[in-house]
Amino acid sequence: MHWSINTLPMPPYVELGVHSLSGLLWTILLLFLWHCYRMGSDLPIPGHAHSGKLKSGSRRSMMSRSGICAGTRCSARSKLSRSDQISPFISMETGEDEEQGQGYLTPVLSHALFPAQASAEAKKLYAALQEYAKRYSWVGMGRIHKGLREQVRLNDHSAIQKPHLFFLPDVPSVPFFPRDAHRHDIEVLEANYSAILAEFQAVYQRGTDSKLGWTCLGPKGQAVFPLYSAGVCVAGNCRSCPCTYRTLLSLRTFISSNSLGSAGFWLLGPGATLGSSYGPTNTRLRCHLGLQTPPLCELVVGGEPQCWSEGHCLLVDDSFLHTISHKDAAPRVILSVDLWHPNVAAAERQALDYMFSPDL
């Protein structure tokens, strides 16, 4: 194409030399072509750069040449290798999960098989998680997915904290939690202590027979009067204790819709001892409201001993190794209520409700 100075819009009062202006334009054109050449050919030299990473200039040139990609959608796909096949229902919200090169959802995105040595229960939970993600999203499911895959390895090791059913990783925990972890719910339970105690005494005086709603769990007077059992309301028992039932409904973090949650009166007879055991999960805390608490009754969780106190609550993480020793002559009675662990996010609670639904 022939360039002419007459084709450029120039003010009529500017007088420039034709040869100098033409040389300036050619210089600018050559610099532009050289810049484009360097941007397009700035590829990593074999042996001098990691095979999976490009220089910053090369990354910019790749984005400029791939006009079909736009915004965050393109940048998210560029994080995956070409061999990764993404299912239509999997969300690409994996930015925070890919720190240090190994994300929570990497096995899902790469279609890695679930551990073959996993138990039937773990495989069932994994299938439920996938079904939940199809209906909703993978967003916020990273820790749950990681916990299901690592449950097998956790069960193979001795530990002071080892929930036998489901372990949610990266959850800060201690054997006994402070009151501030669930201040509202604790204050509600303690404010209704007198009414709850009166309703327990009424059902206890009728007897602890199974026909009256009680469930015997072992020798020496160990029994429970359930109000919620594995996420299901025991309607007859709740009708016998209306104030306690209304109190449970007023709690903000009560686990009332999945099989990890229960609530009821727990009775332990004199001389009873409960051996070392682990709870099923670390996603909950058990709140114990003391109703009748003899002095020689002790709870040891994770090596830390505590005693109950009448009218006051203990927040216990029973996924730690725990034992109970009751050496007093009077029975011990508590109202036990399962609450969500404060570090379990709302999206994770919704997914766990689905995975551990009593109907599944």
How do the helices and strands line up, and which of them pair or pack?
Blueprint lengths: L17 H24 L14 H10 L5 H8 L27 H4 L10 H16 L6 H14 L20 E2 L5 H9 L1 H13 L9 E2 L6 E7 L2 E2 L1 H6 L1 H8 L13 E6 L4 E5 L6 E9 L4 E5 L2 E3 L6 E4 L5 E5 L5 E9 L5 H10 L5
Helix pairs in contact: 5-6, 5-11
Family: Belongs to the aspartyl/asparaginyl beta-hydroxylase family.
Protein name: Aspartate beta-hydroxylase domain-containing protein 2-like
GO molecular function, one term: dioxygenase activity
How does this model look, in words?
It comes from Echeneis naucrates. This protein is α+β, with helices and mostly antiparallel strands and 360 residues long. It has a domain at 176-344: Sandwich (Jelly Rolls), CATH 2.60.120.330. Helices cover 34% and strands 16% of the residues. It has helices spanning 18-41, 56-65, 71-78, 106-109, 120-135, 142-155, 183-191, 193-205, 235-240, 242-249, 346-355, and strands spanning 176-177, 215-216, 223-229, 232-233, 263-268, 273-277, 284-292, 297-301, 304-306, 313-316, 322-326, 332-340. Strands 1, 2, 3, 4, 5, 7, 10 and 12 form an 8-stranded antiparallel sheet that branches. Helix 5 (120-135) packs antiparallel against helix 6. The protein is elongated, with a radius of gyration of 32 Å. The termini are far apart. The model is unreliable at 43-102 (pLDDT under 50).
Outline type? elongated
Q: Name the CATH homologous superfamily of the domain at 176-344.
A: B-lactam Antibiotic, Isopenicillin N Synthase, Chain
Largest sheet: 8 strands, antiparallel
Order of helices and strands: HHHHHHEHHEEEHHEEEEEEEEH
Helical percentage: 25-40%
Distance between the termini: 74 Å
Mean model confidence by pLDDT: 79
Strand fraction equals 15-25%
InterPro entries: Asp/Arg/Pro-Hydrxlase, Asp/Asn_beta-hydroxylase, IPNS-like_sf
GO cellular component, one term: membrane
Family: Belongs to the aspartyl/asparaginyl beta-hydroxylase family.
GO molecular function: dioxygenase activity
